[in-house]
Specification:
By secondary structure, the chain is mainly alpha-helical. It contains five helices and two strands; from the N terminus they run αβααααβ. A two-stranded antiparallel sheet has the order 1-2. α2 packs antiparallel against α5.
Length: 134
């Protein structure tokens, strides 16, 4: 009884000559660059929001917010509470705003870099990339 693994093992035992191909990257599609940079920006946005939440959770679990709040109240005669200004909803709102701004900026920068590369190819001739088949 022959399995797929046996067939692949037989194929890999044969030595084939690796063919090497050198190609030039002379164009980056604008919309592909925008889509890829948007996907990277979404990942960065998720990491940003999770990081803000985790940092706030660690700071509040250690009691640093309460100690800083009591110190701040001693300077302001108890009129302003720091925990009202830096609560979880406010921290997550700031994290969301930063994530959205990063989303827009990274997406635009991906498009700009693709455009700059496409213009630079006319001068430099493109990027030489080598591929081998195994």
């Amino acid at each position: 009884m022959s399995t797929v693994a046996d067939k692949l093992a037989k194929k890999s035992s044969h030595k084939t000559s690796a063919k090497q191909v050198r190609l030039r990257l002379v164009y980056i599609d604008f919309w592909s660059a925008v889509k890829l940079s948007f996907l990277a920006a979404v990942a960065i946005a998720v990491v940003t929001i999770v990081a803000f939440f985790l940092i706030y959770a660690v700071i509040s679990a250690t009691g640093l917010v309460g100690k800083t709040d009591s110190l701040f109240k001693s300077f302001t005669d108890g009129t302003v509470s720091l925990s009202q200004v830096f609560g979880l909803p406010q921290v997550m709102a700031v994290a969301s705003i930063i994530a959205i701004l990063n989303l827009v900026i990274v997406t635009v920068m991906g498009a700009v870099v693709a455009g700059i590369y496409n213009l630079a190819v006319k001068i430099t001739g493109g990027l030489l990339v080598g591929f081998t088949s195994s």
